[in-house]
């Protein structure tokens, strides 16, 4: 049992909606399609009536055979059955056409809303939720919801037909009609009992499938690394139990659903036996005509088919309901980053002040505790420190990707929580270590922050970065296709595109995580030139990995376990011989052109001259 249920827990944002809330929510998606739905409903009524008319005409034919009048009315009844059959086809065609459109439109809207919700989520959401699981909610869960909506229409049509047949049966023989109806509460009772079981097993099956998706997604993302380290077997070993689990859970779901049908068919069979016996006796006693008896037997199959298929629908119905629950939970997931107001920030000067700020990805384990730091407008600050010191965390708070728990973060003296988030973020230029490029051309990527930017602006930005020589090295200049994730460009070229993109954005504050990957000296020089241009006149926070950067910034801040342990400029900090020297020896010193392996380390713990 343990294995089967492992990893199938709900996501943090999952919730259970009451049937009423769920239904109300689903109805709200269908409401704009009221006109088409009325047409579908009319067609369903006509279709059900015409389907119920066929056995009625058949029963008249049986009576005519018994009376010996079939010779006179036979052709009329045949024509009647033909016309009713043809009309059924037309009604069904119109019904299918419009109901498919209604379902398609509703799913389109639901998927748009789900995708919108995904885009709106804070970065913490992406840290906590594997992307495969998100994809699964936006695609297969909305598909399951589509199935529910078309099933619901089928269900309504079947229920209506049952209603028509019931009326007919009562008109013919109250006694036999009551016998037929006697079984309904048993079937409905069984279906209701089954409901709970079905919902639980269906939900598990969906979660296990999204686990499979998440695993596949991660495998595809890291396939190059896996192949590099020849870890295909390990990847497969990880996939196997997850896939097995999905198999087991789906099998269990199948078992749950397969128990209901034999039970239902047994009840139906017993009822039919009763009807054959009782009806036959009544025909012999002349209390019932042969045609009526025929209608009852036909009616029973017409009657039973919808009832048993309602139970059959149940599985998919439940699947769709829990899918819609999952999609709504995604749409309704509360944001972690909450603004207390939405004041227009105006053009920011870029003064940043952390005041007694406390933050932890998990509130019980703070990464920053009572943290204080003031960065003046226009200042360029380098954050250095060992891995895990909290450098990226600071930048994630400035970009407002995460919500801090305590203290204040002021931008130009205003509480960051009061600024209109979209307008604020548009003035923050964030460059990650490995800049992400979208499929398209180099020009498309440069104009990404401002799609209305003209070709000349894009060209000017590209030319300004690194002297523009790098554009000539691209096979089709700015029209070169960058490939998926920018794979068609070298690492250095991707960084240059990211810098040109910043120029187009023209942010007030730049948060830059320098790439650790080394590039050739020419590209390095171009990047440095580009950086000087991009950072000039803006407040800049650089998570520094390059010697040339730390040598030129206004202030270096040395972080250790979320605390500032030293700050100052390069020469002063080196002279102090403290923590900065350690970091310098570890990360930066070897980049110096004068560096010789094994020599020239700056002594830690005592004042030492600045060596290069
Ligand atoms: N998304 C996250 N969820 C939980 N903990 C995190 C997350 N990101 C970082 N941390 C933790 O927060 C601490 C600070 O991490 P941070 O990424 O800020 O360090 P860093 O100084 O930028 O390190 P590096 O130079 O390796 O990028 C680390 O202990 C890290 O494990």
TrEMBL record:
InterPro entries membership: AAA+_ATPase, ABC1_TM_dom, ABC1_TM_sf, ABC_transporter-like_ATP-bd, P-loop_NTPase, Type_1_exporter
Superkingdom, taxonomy of origin: Bacteria
Protein source organism: Nonomuraea phyllanthi
Protein name, per record: ATP-binding cassette domain-containing protein
Signal peptide: none
Subcellular location: Cell membrane
Alphabetical list of PANTHER family matching this protein: ATP-BINDING CASSETTE SUB-FAMILY B MEMBER 10, MITOCHONDRIAL (PTHR43394:SF1), ATP-DEPENDENT PERMEASE MDL1, MITOCHONDRIAL (PTHR43394)
Family: Belongs to the ABC transporter superfamily. Lipid exporter (TC 3.A.1.106) family.
Matching Pfam families: ABC_membrane, ABC_tran
Keywords: ATP-binding, Cell membrane, Membrane, Nucleotide-binding, Transmembrane, Transmembrane helix, Transport
GO molecular function: ABC-type oligopeptide transporter activity; ATP binding; ATP hydrolysis activity
CDD domains: ABC_6TM_exporters (cd07346), ABCC_Glucan_exporter_like (cd03254)
SMART domains tied to this protein: AAA
Alphabetical list of SUPFAM superfamilies matching this protein: ABC transporter transmembrane region, P-loop containing nucleoside triphosphate hydrolases
